[in-house]
Design goal:
The chain has about 270 residues and is an alpha/beta fold. The protein is about 50% helix and about 15% strand. Helix 1 (about 15-25) packs across helix 7 (about 220-230), helix 3 (about 65-80) packs parallel to helix 4 (about 105-130) and helix 8 crosses helix 9.
Length: about 270
């Protein structure tokens, strides 16, 4: 898909990869409906979009709320008389905590935001997208959908569900006007940890200090450009980043050895208290 003249919804648009996707889509000539649950961050990205003369709107919504999702999609549909694409980027990350220490309500919250939010947005959008001559659904999964990480079981399961849903949806919509794109990023230098409800301020500070002076992971601007460029080239499955590519290959060839390596590495990351 070429983005010029298209109208797209971007969830989690207030920061990180979502913000960069919104800005770069605007630079490619698209109209952007930005969705986020943080009003201050949403306002800042709208300001940036308006400065680059992008047609845009901001929508404050909790995508884990079914009623809020229905209202959101109806609002955007009415505002633009339809839309051409949905980018499901919003998500939350758990801390590195084993399932035995993670409360059921926390697991439910991770699943409801990362998986059910995406499902509800797709379901509400499909009738609108089916009427467009060309339409797009992009679901942002994770490297965790390809390689299980100890201490990230609930998060990984939610992202694996995104992967399976997306691949099934692609088969169901084959031959229609809708393209379904699955993105599985490795490490991206975003604020996903800072925005997570599962880390204390002390744990966030510890993680920031671990990454000080290091340049591991893609910059979100570069990650966004890679995603959009791949979509423009017609790709439907995007493994993003050298770490994602390498760990995917290693796990396929030597799953036990790779699992042991990841279990060892996880011991150095702060856990929830």
């Amino acid at each position: 898909m070429r983005f010029a003249g298209r109208t797209l919804i971007v969830t989690g648009a207030g920061s990180g990869l979502g913000e960069c996707l919104a800005l770069q889509l605007g630079q490619r000539g698209a109209t952007i409906a930005c969705v986020d649950r943080n009003e201050a961050l949403l306002g800042k990205v709208i300001e940036r979009l308006e400065k680059q003369s992008t047609r845009c709107s901001g929508h404050l919504a909790d995508i884990s709320d079914a009623e809020a999702v229905e209202k959101l999609i109806s609002e955007i549909d009415d505002l633009y008389a339809g839309f051409d694409g949905l980018i499901n980027n919003a998500g939350i990350m758990q801390s590195f905590t084993p399932i035995s220490d993670l409360a059921i309500p926390d697991i439910e919250q991770i699943t409801r935001v990362n998986y059910w939010g995406m499902v509800m947005l797709v379901k509400a959008s499909l009738p609108i997208l089916e009427r467009r001559p060309e339409a797009l659904i992009v679901n942002i999964s994770s490297l965790s959908a390809l390689v299980p990480f100890p201490g990230q079981t609930a998060y990984g399961a939610s992202k694996a569900a995104v992967r399976s849903f997306s691949e099934g949806l692609r088969m169901e919509t084959e031959g229609s006007s809708i393209e379904v794109v699955l993105v599985m990023p490795g490490a991206i230098r975003t604020g996903i940890v800072d925005n997570s409800p599962f880390y204390s301020e002390q744990q966030k500070a510890e993680l920031r200090s671990l990454s000080e002076g290091r340049s591991f992971g893609l910059e979100p601007e570069r990650a966004a450009d890679k995603v959009l460029s791949a979509i423009e080239k017609g790709r439907h499955r995007i493994v993003l980043g050298g770490d994602a590519w390498l760990l995917d290959k290693l796990y396929r060839v030597a799953p036990i050895a790779t699992s042991r390596l990841l279990r060892w590495a996880a011991r150095f990351l702060p856990a929830i208290e």
